[in-house]
Specification:
Length: 72
Amino acid sequence: MGLFDADLDFMEFPSEIIILIIVLSLFTEVFKRLSLIDYIGHYFIKLTKGNRTLIMITIPLLMYLTSLFMNN
């Protein structure tokens, strides 16, 4: 058909992006198998004593601070 030439289109695509996606998916799979996300969720519930408003404030704040750390 010749509608999409993957070799030509991805020739200039940065390989760092592909590596980043692969590494992030590996980390996600490891965290899922270790139930780390569930542990963190239960920890937040315990820490905030079930206060939904406090949870809604702390989780985005934690995500923001983690993003600051990861981007540098």
